[in-house]
Amino acid sequence: MKIGYHASHEQFPPGELLDLAAHAHEAGFDAMMCSDHFHPWSRAQGHSGHAWTWLGAAMARVDTSFGVVNSPVGRYHPTVIAQAAATLASMFPGRFWIAVGSGEAINETITGAEWPSKDARNRRLLEAVEVMRALWRGETVNHAGEFRVAHAQLFTRPDTPPRVYVAALSPETAAWGAGWADGLITVSQPMDKLKPIVEAFRENGGDGKPVQLQVKLSYAKTEEDALRGAHEQWRTNVVEPSLTQDVSTPQAYEALGEQVTPEQVAEAVNVSADPARHVQWLREYAALGVEALQLHNVNRWQREFIDAFAREVIPKVR
């Protein structure tokens, strides 16, 4: 099992994030991932570096596996994402994967296009994956459906195409993606909600396919700092997805997060200054049989987190 570092483009400028990824790898983290956003979730987070630009620099500097969570259709066109993924997979064989989701309004509506229903977004996502895989096989693609493709062919392709994970936050999405995805990535939450997602994936065609878990945590030198940092940076992200999937600006997310208490954040994020408590949490997640735990320390004290976990947590979880 790998233990990775989640590089949060919403919270740090890309140059600093590049240094943090290198520091994490030197300390003992053996995988990396990031998410592809146009906006942060709040102005307190404050950044929105371009994930694909950063990935090229990061993978050249840090010799480990990298993945990105991306909506390949919306503000992007699937042919563009297919080309970007093929380029990274060609330069860094076996080191790049992509997780695909149906997108969020905060990112995808910037072009002024209509924001589709969830069912329509799922339809276009599956079409996008099929188009990307056809391009990676070297086919000339013409497509007319939720989007159009005309006479597209990729001339630079990796020997082995990147794995495509489905990004799922519910059992329904996990079950839907199990048949066509190469693996599942989901986000940590209470075990009574997390296990049904993993089980739905494995019981509907995903058995034997890899599962990755992005773990939301807040570690700091004191309990007060850990809770305060999580609340300051991540309270906009613990609102129910049903309330946020159509929200299109950071300011609107902030309004939803105004009533979120620190205690409510701690229900969604593993908040503790005690490394032993984090070891316990991570061992429980590892028992699900995951391929990787991708750790996202949601507060701003990244180097302290990296160093403490390299010394006191990672060796006891592996």
TrEMBL record:
Domain Luciferase-like stretches: 7-291
SUPFAM superfamilies: Bacterial luciferase-like (SSF51679)
Signal peptide feature range: none
Keyword list, A-Z: Oxidoreductase
Family annotation (Pfam families): Bac_luciferase
Coiled-coil annotated spans: none
InterPro entries in the record: F420-G6PD/mer, F420_G6P_DH-rel, Luciferase-like_dom, Luciferase-like_sf, Non-F420_Flavin_OxRdtase
UniProt-listed NCBIfam families: F420_G6P_family, flavin_revert
Name of the protein this chain belongs to: TIGR03885 family FMN-dependent LLM class oxidoreductase
Species for this entry: Lysobacter auxotrophicus
